[in-house]
Amino acid sequence: MFPIPLRADRLSKTYGASFLSTGKCIFHEISLEIRQGETFGLMGASGEGKSTLGRVIAGIERPTSGSVYYNGYGLTEMKKIENAAFRRKVQIMFQDPADAFNPRKKIEQAISEVLKLLRVPEAGYASKIEEMLVTTGLPDEVLSRYPIQLSGGQLQRLALGRILLLNPEYIILDEPTSALDVSVQAQILHMLKRVQAERNTGYLLISHDEAVIRFMSDSYGVLENGQLKIIE
């Protein structure tokens, strides 16, 4: 049996609607599917609502209308246990990796906090952290540093590594390379492809860069004027 895709069904988002105003429509009746092991690319100019759509699909923002379906359940209709599974299995990786870390905490502490939330026995922290470092291609030295002491590429690898500790089925990648140098961008994209192949992870890749979209995506769509045109 094939896994049920993460699905957006006729999602609309409007800001500022009231009795006296219809508000500003960000996007209207957007439908798409993200399948495990595949990448759906979401392309469009700045201000078209790509990141907002990603946050809605991740459950961070609520749509004005429409629904997100995970394992056949509508997000707004999920019971507590189903919603908890969704929150763990559908993750989002933001554009600026520095925002993902507390600047006052060393990296090892930031990673350990996730393991604690996952109820991993403390004796197992070292092996989990080592596995994460191997996956992301980072040296042990990063653990003793503060986020400000690391490069953007290192922080983005760590942001992905911390997400992977949750063993997600889907990751929304919101402009994951736009803040990085070109050479580092290529490294991050190849790492994402390798992780996807190893873990069968589904990606929603948000980018304004057509070359990145074409390199990474199995199919993609262009968001423009609130409408999504899907290109296979």
Supply database-style keywords.
232 residues, alpha/beta, Rossmann fold, four-stranded antiparallel sheet, 34% helix, globular
Report the mean per-residue pLDDT as an integer.
91
Oligomer state of the chains in this structure: single chain
Low-confidence stretches: none
Determine the CATH topology of the domain at 6-101 and 167-231.
Rossmann fold
The main pleated sheet reads as: 6 strands, mixed
Estimate the strand proportion.
25-35%
Architecture per CATH nomenclature, i.e. the level-2 architecture of the domain at 6-101 and 167-231: 3-Layer(aba) Sandwich
Structural class label: alpha/beta
Task: Report the order of strands and helices.
Answer: EEEHEEHEHHHEHEHEE
- CATH-assigned homologous superfamily of the domain at 6-101 and 167-231: P-loop containing nucleotide triphosphate hydrolases
Shape label: globular
* Distance between the amino and carboxyl termini: 23 Å
Family: Belongs to the ABC transporter superfamily.
GO molecular function: ATP binding; ATP hydrolysis activity
Domain ABC transporter: 6-231
Keywords: ATP-binding, Nucleotide-binding, Transport
Task: Walk me through the topology.
Layout: E1 6-15, E2 24-34, E3 39-43, H1 50-57, E4 65-70, E5 73-74, H2 80-89, E6 90-93, H3 107-117, H4 125-136, H5 152-164, E7 170-174, H6 182-199, E8 202-207, H7 210-216, E9 219-224, E10 227-231
Parallel strand pairs: 3-8, 3-9, 6-7, 7-8
Antiparallel strand pairs: 1-2, 1-4, 4-5, 9-10
